Amino acid sequence: MSLERVLFAFVIVLALTLNVGFVVGDIDNPDHHDSVELFLAIIVSLVATVMKFGDRSPLGSTMLATSLVADVQLLAAAGVWGVAVAQLAPGAELGPKQMATIVSFATGAMVANVVSVVLLVIETANQRR
Fold first, then answer.
1. Fewest CB atoms within 10 Å of the CB: 60, 63, 64, 108?
2. DSSP, residue by residue, 87-116
3. What is the value of pTM for the model shown?
4. What is the pLDDT of residues 17-60, one digit of tens each?
5. Interatomic CA distance for residues 92 and 113, integer angstroms
6. Distance between CA atoms of residues 37 and 32, nearest Å
7. Per-residue pLDDT at 100
8. b/e string for 5-38 if b means 16 or more Cβ within 10 A?
9. DSSP 3-state assignment of 19?
10. Are 86 and 101 within 8 A, CB to CB?
11. What is the Cα–Cα distance from 124 to 7, expressed in whole angstroms?
């Protein structure tokens, strides 16, 4: 068992699970989506992307592409959140429309992370043959 491969798979799956944790809940209810969880999803997704730069496997370029898509989507979600908060009056909260947009971006990242995990499983299955 390669510690490097274990760490690689761990980070990829962690990126997906943090992303799912953020997305789960009513799409337009800000109480169901935590900004800290979005921040952690972004950090782990960026770490996964950096790790994929070193992957020389046949599916490595596709896995890197999915990770870049997830990064863009999560950063867009954070950007929308930041702009929405900056425009709020003191003491006001995010509205349903802004939250739905943020969660929609994060859902796109989740789809990219699912594809990345599926590719990881396919690659792992092919190595054993």
1. 60
2. HSPTT----HHHHHHHHHHHHHHHHHHHHH
3. 0.92
4. 999 999 999 999 999 999 999 999 999 999 999 999 878 877 88
5. 33
6. 11
7. 96
8. eeebbebbbbbbebbebbbeeebbebeebeeebb
9. helix
10. no
11. 14
